[in-house]
């Protein structure tokens, strides 16, 4: 399957030969996107507060390291859903910035392999603000087609989304938000008749990372707020006659919330890829060790001994894991080394992901402020990125 990143381009994905986005309306659409971005107040930061926030949260599921909450907000549009998954991850904001990068062919391929598991197709329409070495802020308009939330019952969905990644400071703590919200642009019309894709509405969803009280950890809140809209006859029958729409939605959205635990794995994979390996001649000889360096469990007569290529210590099979360090390569790294923040020349550049941070108000948070005016549009060109990504 091919993913197209670049407006007006057609992929060889299932919908590629049918969908062509109208780039002649780019200027008008980009202006509308900026106006929408200026007017909207994505309440991700405030909404992610479990106490004293605008949303009343009730515990839906407590699953080991992850807690899933269902939200109730009087201001939410009728028929929508509001869920949030909360967990702590061992990471830095710089690592989060790098994890969500998609501004190069390699990063885009890795991003889609990780975050695109529920996607059928995707197109990057307009780049409104591209990340740079000085500022990691990213604003773009994208189109996404999703797999059936409940196979055999529901229809495939699609959405035209305004996407924003940026840093913030709140109460002296550094944070990062990666948010999406539905937007209407003329160049991305409804495609239900041609492709059978039901246009869903995303009221404001995404990932919120904030430095926690635990040293080295971030609190991750994954918000999902949307409306799947009407669907097929079978779907409407299940919802209207059998009164099971809420049950189906709860099942599908809860499954999406659980997927946030993959972020911890992906962060470890990125660390394993960047941390330097120890020369093999410096590894501890397996024959000289009778117990695991980490858990101290004895190997016994038939226990498997493995050297971690990062630290050189001898560990057991329960303390070493295979991490995917690139789309085509995996290595085995022990559990402790996968938590170590890389140092040295391969470490993440801090300047790229932490420009002068914005101080967020307690009322709401706005993705980008101050350049939604039409006279500012001249600073942005109709940037096209024409590379193809296979996933």
UniProtKB/TrEMBL annotation:
Domain of life: Eukaryota
Protein's UniProt keywords contain Chloroplast: no
Domain RING-type positions: 292-338
Domain FYVE-type: 286-342
Molecular-function GO term, any one: zinc ion binding
Record flagged with keyword Isomerase: no
UniProt cross-references to CDD domains, sorted A to Z: FYVE_like_SF (cd00065)
Residues making up the signal peptide according to the UniProt record: none
Keywords: Metal-binding, Zinc, Zinc-finger
UniProt cross-references to InterPro entries, sorted A to Z: Rab4/Rab5_effector (IPR052727), START-like_dom_sf (IPR023393), Znf_FYVE (IPR000306), Znf_FYVE-rel (IPR017455), Znf_FYVE_PHD (IPR011011), Znf_RING (IPR001841), Znf_RING/FYVE/PHD (IPR013083), Znf_RING_CS (IPR017907)
SMART domains according to UniProt: FYVE
Protein name: FYVE-type domain-containing protein
Annotated organism of origin: Aphanomyces astaci
